[in-house]
Amino acid sequence: MKKIIIIAAAFLGLAFNSNAQNASATATQSVSLTLSNAIAITFTGSGTNTGGAVTLPFSTVSDYANGVTSTAQQLKVQSNLPFDVTVKSNASNFTYTGTYTTGTTMPVSGVLKLMVTANATGGSIVTPFSSTAYSTLTSTDQNLIANGTYGSNQLFSVQYQATPGFTYPAGTYTTSVVYTATQQ
Asked: What is the pLDDT of residues 100-125, one digit of tens each?
């Protein structure tokens, strides 16, 4: 009988041990992201904010009479907010390099023009610019793209046209075109 009681007690002890809960503990930690506004504009050809030089050679009478057009130049905006893009020439006149000393002051306005050939920014092209006609550049900021949508790959392309006519002597006339992307 003693053996039966001892065996029964042993089975009871095992039963209680098998129903016991495993011990556990938890730890909690808060993680916060502190985001700043971020925007960048780059030329896709160079991957930087400095595009490759665009050369428009005037070799024939037809070039002088009709103007010369560049290939499309693609830019990319990356922004975490909606944005606008402006464009301007860095100076009101081209810089001249050549052998002539007179008649070399060529204004940018009226000679250098721009057209938006593609717009995948989610925004709209702002008048006077369009995707169907060239508009004159000036040395003051001109709205080019309005209400571009945020994202990491907002692309647009531009094409230049120069129409200096027969007024200026041979040489190289240079200006820089500045694109500025600004968050709204």
From this structure: 988 899 999 999 999 999 999 999 99
Positive/negative CA dihedral, 104, 108, 109, 112: positive
Look at residues 155, 129, 157, 146 and name the one whose alpha carbon lies nearest to residue 182. 146
How many of the other CB atoms lie within 10 Å of CB of 126? 19
End-to-end Cα spacing for the chain: 90
- With a CB cutoff of 8 Å and minimum separation 6, the contacts of 124 are 145, 146, 147
Q: How far is CA 158 from CA 56, 67, 100, in A?
A: 15, 16, 32
Which domains, and CATH codes, for the chain? 33-183 (2.60.40)
pTM here is 0.84
* pLDDT tens per residue, range 143-182: 999 999 999 999 999 999 999 999 999 999 999 999 999 9
Pairing of strands 172-174, 95-97: antiparallel
Q: Are 152 and 120 in contact (CB under 8 A)?
A: no
The whole-angstrom separation of Cα 65 and Cα 59 is 11
Of 128, 169, 121, the closest CA to residue 149 belongs to 121
Give the C-alpha separation, 79 to 119, whole Å: 16
